[in-house]
Amino acid sequence: MAQTFIEILRRALDEEMARDAAVYLLGEDVAEGGAFGVTKGLAAKHGATRVKNTPISEAAITGMATGAALCGLKPILEIMFIDFATLALDCLVNQAAKYRYMSGGQLAVPMVVRTQSGAAGGAAAQHSQSLESWFIHVPGLVVVAPSSPMEAYGLLKSAIRLGDPVLFIEHKRLYAMKEDFVDSAELPTIGKARVAREGSDVTIIAYSAMVRTALEAAETLAGRGISAEVIDLRTLLPLDMATISASVSKTHRAIVAHEAVMSGGVGAEIAARIADELFDELDAPVKRVGCPFVPIPFAPELEKALLPNALSIVQAAQELVR
Amino acid sequence: MIKTSGALTPRSHFYWITLVQSSAKPADWKTLLAQLWRIRLFEGHVQRLAAGGEVPGFPHLSTGQEAVAVGVCAHLTQNDVVFTGHRGHGHSLAKGCNLTATMAEILGRDTGLCRGRGGSMHLVDAGCGMLGATGVVAGNLPLAAGAAWAAQARQTGAISVVFFGDGATGAGVFHETLNLAGLWKLPLLLVCENNGYAEFTSRAEHSDVAKVSAFAAPYSIPSATIDGNDLIAVHQSAASAIEHVRRGDGPYLLECMTVRLAGHYVGDQQQYRSKEELAEALKKCPIERLKSYLLSQGVTDDELMAIADQIKQEVQRDVDAARAAAAPDPASFAEGVYASPLLAAGC
Ligand SMILES: Cc1ncc(C[n+]2csc(CCOP(=O)(O)OP(=O)(O)O)c2C)c(N)n1
Ligand SMILES: [Mg+2]
Hints:
heterodimer, A: alpha/beta, about 20% strand, B: alpha/beta, Rossmann fold, six-stranded parallel sheet, binds thiamine diphosphate
């Protein structure tokens, strides 16, 4: 039976809590299920000591999760909106990311920070951002951005077992997405991208909710005689350049599509790497599709006008394949 | 009742109480005096080596504040964990870090505690429960609370101790941590070393809250303000604070009034402090005070000299060993960012 992104995430959390007694959940409202209901029922099942509501203290709870991770727990912290990760930056950037390195390998921070990002439904400028590129600038962090319920299931489990601090970014537009739950013994390897659709004319590199948009665009492009390959990055830090390279060496054209603003974004990083490593393979410049450099507006008409969609990707592809 | 000589006038209410209540004997105090000396001498070496250009970065010395580190850590077991900040050499040594490896780290050597990746402000020795120093003022407070939470959750019986300065109380995360620690009744001892300064700015310019311990009550955390330059006072107050924390009664905030006898960092000319103020500060030296007390208790000058000589030799030997160690292999700089080589390769 098809289950939503939220239900499948909950299943992953539930199974990992059952599998490993060191896994603890904390965050605002998590014992009540959290703002989006992801952790619903887990406190009743695994006990109130393992699913802890916290005060609205993003800095301290991120620090506490880090400190607990140094001392034998595997905390999963929920930061309700990535916009509020601003308040947790010191700990994520200065403490959690650097503990392994600064301690000469004596200590590690096996922690997952689950957070939620992206624009939808008039959440406006402080509850809609895509801030992932800030974090890919920090050695020691791992940044994961799943594109579907089953992707989220496997990636969350792998993240929990990884042993280094992971920022796990869920897109709010994906929460209602449904998929059949498929049991599989194999979990994805953090750091490996996946080819979501094969093609030969152009590579569309995407992640999170934009993978679905890219697949839609690929379908439209197929109808217009353009064969697009879609790469789902899965992890933004590290970047799987091997998968990107194999694809671009085949299609000779690349588009990076994300919802975040283009300036200083993940697309800028990937475009630079393709230019560095694959210049001779390119038949056209690397294109980026992303939000214009504007805060996310409130009014639905404005929000819709701003967000990149399948058509934006189709147009970019048609410009490249002429 | 312990008699005080003329040279040893009780400086505070606490002084009397501690002497009267303490079960420790002069022999124990001698051991702790040796630890004070060890830290003082160690940091003397840091200062000299820094002046000679041998220490990268900008080390901060705890000279004058050693009694807090020694008096608190004397009660900790190896399972208890300690977090400190930028002024953490003393806490590290008092918690049991190997002196040679600590100095080697401060010198940036491969044999250092953190293989030269951390330095003076990031000393870690997981084996002895020294879980880390941080260079971000107040950043250590929630880490220590998290360690306390882990101890509580795993029922290890360990406690977590965090040392921080008076300046840290200006940070929001200090208050967030107090709230959480009080609420969750965490086994956390918060030790504030109130030296009256945050860098070059006096406490009066930082806050209208006269006592740091006053921050504790609204969060239902018991607290005390004590003379942090009186080793016996620190030892005694820490004993009861730690007893409270270990019993599972929640956190405790111990504010230790102290003085920094050196600059904020090595090389600080201290133009913001008057000569008179510095002269006054010297009179509060915790080592001199403990020595006077011991002499009043019948310990002889010769005995103390012998201890000092022995410590001096040991510290010199260990510092020499650290200086003789090799620098890290430059080609190794990328090692140890991630557990998985796949991740390291992909960044
Ligand atoms: C968040 C942060 N802001 C500023 C600094 C620069 N800084 C280093 S030490 C210090 C003063 C800290 O004062 P206090 O906490 O009283 O400790 P003390 O130096 O007196 O031991 C400052 C401002 C810092 N390291 N971290
Ligand atoms: Mg201070």
